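Could you join me in thinking about how sequence relates to backbone shape in a protein? We need material for that, and I hope you will provide a protein of your own picking. Once you have written the record down, we can walk along the chain together:

…
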Amino acid sequence: PWVLWLTLHSTALCTFEPPGCKEMEVAAIAGESVQLLPLKLPESWTEITWEVTLDSAETYGIVTFHKGEPPDHGSSPHFINRVTFHPDNLSLQIDPVKKSDSGLYSLQTETGGGHINITKFRSLLSDRVRQPNLTVLSAHLELGQCSVTLFCSVPGADRVTYSWSRGTSRIPSDRDHQLPGNQSLLHVAINADSSDIFYRCNASNRASWAADTAGGKSLCDSPATGKYSSHVSAGNLQALHKRGQYHHPHLTNGETEAQSSDVTCPTSLGAVAAWK
């Protein structure tokens, strides 16, 4: 399977074990694979422990590893047959991950002399975003210009953010209207002779995205409230990133790996997701 690391950065301060604390938020897709990966390994250590406090308030010891010995996965029924510990990088992989796995995961690394480094991962689970529906609510042609209102929605979506683009240029967010119930409206004016312009609606959550596209000229030629040329770029996020055709609206160009600071502990939104 393909594995992709995606990260975003914010400046929230960590308040767990200063000054050596580290915290990351990890966005993952329910039903797929997530890997919790420490970004900086200790130079020396004697024992590591992975623990979790779930959002349900249940606490589990997931795995304990003494150097030179096999990992002890304990007897937690919550993660049975779903957890793999990777001794080479001390990471924890959960496959498949469930929504009930959301919570605060802790990697405790004992380095000797009673000193313990702790890295915390806030796991946030979302469903994969479904294909949005892009439709035309109104279209009016006058004096060679077509005024169009586009409507975009994702059926059954929860906490979806929309963005729009014209051709390859993103439309500023103040041009569209986010509606209750995970829907979005966009008003555009199109020259009647514009045959090569298209509009794209992108729907995304923390861990995935999907998009639908409509051709500009066809919006004026066809009756309103209809479905237009679609499915140009629906959601294989990993493949499009690999080809360089898509940049997540919250990622800077080329940003593909988590960065963290041992002092300020910036919160990092990341996804380590496997597509099969």
In short: Confidence is low (pLDDT under 50) at residues 1-20, 224-276. The chain has two domains: 2-127+251-275, 133-234. The helical segments are 216-221, 237-243. Residues 2-127+251-275 form a domain with the Immunoglobulin-like fold (CATH 2.60.40.10).
